[in-house]
Write a structure and sequence with these properties.
eight-stranded antiparallel sheet, 531 residues, Uridine Diphospho-n-acetylenolpyruvylglucosamine Reductase, domain 3, homodimer, 3 domains, globular, five-stranded antiparallel sheet, GMP Synthetase, Chain A, domain 3, alpha+beta, Alpha-Beta Plaits, FAD-linked oxidase (chains A, B)
Chain lengths: 531, 531
Amino acid sequence: MRRWNGWGDEAETYPLSEEARRYLEERVGPGEPPADASLEEVTRGIPASRLPDHPLVTADPETRLRRARGQSLPDWIALRSGRVGTVPDGVAFPENDGHVVELLRFAREAGAAVIPYGGGTSVVGHLTPDPEGPPVLSVDLGRLWQLHRLDEESLLASFGAGVRGPDLEAQLRSRGYTLGHYPQSFEYSSLGGWVVTRSKGQQSLGYGRIEDLFAGGRLQAPAGTLHLPPFPASAAGPDLRELVLGSEGRLGLLTEAVVRVRPVPESEAFHGFFFPDFTSGLAAARELAQERLALTMVRLSTPRETETTLRLAGHQELIRLLERLLGLRGLGEGKCMLLVGAAGRPGQVRAAISEARAVVGRHGGVHVGRTFGREWEKNRFRTPYLRNALWETGYAVDTLETAAPWRAVPDLVAAVEVALQSALQPENERVHVFTHLSHVYPDGSNVYVTYVFRLAADPEQNVERWHRLKGAASRAIGARGGTISHQHGVGTDHRPYLEGEKGRLGLEALRSAAGALDPGGMMNPGKLVEP
Amino acid sequence: MRRWNGWGDEAETYPLSEEARRYLEERVGPGEPPADASLEEVTRGIPASRLPDHPLVTADPETRLRRARGQSLPDWIALRSGRVGTVPDGVAFPENDGHVVELLRFAREAGAAVIPYGGGTSVVGHLTPDPEGPPVLSVDLGRLWQLHRLDEESLLASFGAGVRGPDLEAQLRSRGYTLGHYPQSFEYSSLGGWVVTRSKGQQSLGYGRIEDLFAGGRLQAPAGTLHLPPFPASAAGPDLRELVLGSEGRLGLLTEAVVRVRPVPESEAFHGFFFPDFTSGLAAARELAQERLALTMVRLSTPRETETTLRLAGHQELIRLLERLLGLRGLGEGKCMLLVGAAGRPGQVRAAISEARAVVGRHGGVHVGRTFGREWEKNRFRTPYLRNALWETGYAVDTLETAAPWRAVPDLVAAVEVALQSALQPENERVHVFTHLSHVYPDGSNVYVTYVFRLAADPEQNVERWHRLKGAASRAIGARGGTISHQHGVGTDHRPYLEGEKGRLGLEALRSAAGALDPGGMMNPGKLVEP
């Protein structure tokens, strides 16, 4: 059973080691977990539905509660404390486009808002109902999960857009193909969700971002059906796929998505490297991207993330041995870890890794083999489970991210870290902040920041802490030329900063386009742009 | 001096060989050139400007005539016959954004339409003024041509968007960089024009399409200024760059464009191959794209294009020798030529070509060295000059293009060729049609069709012939799942087919977005979408 107020399956845990607990205690002080509300208690408090009955819609309180929020820190605080605010009035599980069209008709007649639900993994508040809004119908697209067509000649696969990561890959891999889109939320997040939030997979360097992989599909909008034919490229005016990518439910419901797939690579490898400092690591990461080596991943951690990773990894004896060996090569305090991935035929993987080693070597990096790469690979989808353990030890962990041209990256990293570290000073609370670059491009990189702070007993105080942290980081990002989000989307949490990035005119253009597909403003109101 | 009623510089010619003339005579009959109007005669007929005076605007008749049309066949017929229809009432040459803003104000107050003018190389009628519309101000952006900033760390270059191909490359190459965007119109077409028409360069496989190269910039719209910050990637809602890409002047004037550049490659090579038939060539081209080899170009000609190229190439003795040698390998009637390009360090080029040779060999292709590649390279921007010679021998030549998933490509090629070949049967005129694929993708390819037919003495009859041909081809493309344009854009010529591709709702979304930037519908009216 999936956790209703945390990450993942209840049977799965990722306990915090004693070493890790001590490390955090040193960094931010001892934690004290706040009291969680029980599922029974919270379910009992769910108000009656404001929607009329419909055979496709359930008003079951637990079903509604489980689709009320995503996985952002404010979502966690709401669910853990039981102060969940507005929950959907009904949930539907359409099994085909006919159902979706009927649900849109029903919602319009009932004066309801519609919130599309994919995997429920948003970390920026995409799913939060507007507390002042009309009744809410949550449309869970999870039953649109099948591979409908596989064109092996054109490498195009057509899926029900509600398909989740593991089901998508299983259906493709049984036929010898893969999409290769692996966001950390892979276990639950859905293809449609990836598209409408412009999600980036961990290996997007090799497999492409969802913007590259999404070739077309079908969107059911209140004003009608939008068909997006899967052309390899077109000059027939602006690309409507690009309007759907990042539309965050404001235009309609994506029911079908055609994606560009490829044969499963014969082999895959992740190699680890260490640099004496972040500056040399950054120069190497940039060169790896600008040399356009055939890699699937370049992931560089700052010294503090490197230290945190090593402290939280377990295997402390092995780590101490590694550190002694790196010390002999002159790498000590301030060292940075780099992971590099490649996939393809064995010869291609060897060639790519060997070219990467040459670049890394030129920048003073040391190759440490595949152990750290294997460790990362093993835990790539498990890490979110650590959030449960941290919460239960009294710590909140949250992430935020941006992207900018290479020239802006060092300042951006420093400014966001400083903003977060000092945001809770008025309360005398410390914040443990660490950063990595995980998506590099010839012209720039993303910047992915994790921050840990202590939970207060009072949920309001935790929300207040989060607001201070998020605000400080977002202002630092805006001032340093970063985008408000590289891979998480806008949702409710980034909306205050959207106009700063898109401009008044840009938002007006998006608002107008959305109005054409959703004239009544019934789709996910309060997100992205006003109706 | 640039030709006013044909392609290119008057000093440059590309004469038709006697062999080529004979070949065309065999295919479609002897040509008889229609009488051309003189520049003097046509200029004398230009009506007085309907615009009030403005210090930034000239009403000189020849200046206006020279910006009245592009390079489509209907444009040529209009200019050559002297029946040019509506010409702009004034032309402005802004030198900065302040001028552009002032010109938009002037046009609004004068109730005028604004048509942005880049290089005047549109082949689908982007520049044609609406004959029933208001007075027209043509804004020639050619004085916005400078490299403003080069960020060598992020490989980003910021240009005045009116810069033409050769000036753009010269400014970059003197600093060691290149954009690598080479459409056939390179000699005259402009960066801004590439962006707003979604132009594809001949080596887009290696350097990227303009969609990949355009990182951001500034658009001056009637409703204000749209700033597009150059992020490497973003998840902050739909990408507004993608609204500007393909906007065909309907949103405003692009004054600045930031592009992703790269160091000039150390070496570059184009190799030629021949296949026994189109089916095997197509299979090889597909595999080259799907194997994602590090190539810059894959260009496959049908048997008829191969034959036409060989007949029109000159060097007939060498060609006969080649054909004898290919004959010994079993390649005769029906053979197809493939050109493959690679760029980078010499070792990278060798490796890529050697991988390509392996793929080609598996499909029965024969390597013929670099002669044909060098010939193609030498003539890559010269071929349009052949249009002048053909016209003056009595032949019209036109091209059209589409793109589709691989599965649809063979049928699409056949259907478009048949449609064109039979379109003039009611007049008992033959049409010589030949095709190549020049932009391949893992999921599909473009299809680029050239057709030659005889000119009549009467310009109306030539327009009529073109309408029949264009209509027949466009309907065949729509019916076979191709896009109405892969690289030329919509303009006036493809507009009747746009709704078939985008759908009513899609067009409505674009119309609404355009309305936000250009509420009065003054920008290039009659193009893309209604105001």
